[in-house]
Amino acid sequence: MLRHFFFLQLSEFQGYNSATWFQQDGATCHTSNESLADLKEKFAGKLVSRRGDIPWPPRSPDLTPLDFFLWGYMKSRVYSNNPTSIAQLKANIHGEMAAIPRAMCERVFGNLKTRFEKCLQRDGAHLDDVIFKK
């Protein structure tokens, strides 16, 4: 999947460049030797993962935009019209992903920067009082 789908799609994405970082969780299915070798080659020095260049912070949904933002946002949007088929669900997902405004992404990553700073200030401790911004 990495070689024959993800890397091809990534090369067509206008936001991808040599400064792009890759982050994934530490699930064992994501960290096989073969997968990590491909990722380390593609994202040399910029792989956040279990056994990656930068170790994945354990139990860190506070530091993952997919966890603290995207999954909940998408669920609320994708199911708003109660899709009744897989095709309709897929269409909703594609439509909602494409409709996320750039300004919203910028706010999410601004919030992520704040979360990283707080994590550093707390020497990696849990961020139980992080303020969720809209």
TrEMBL record:
A single Gene Ontology MF term assigned here is: nucleic acid binding
Q: Which domain of life is it from?
A: Eukaryota
Identify this protein by name: Transposable element Tc3 transposase
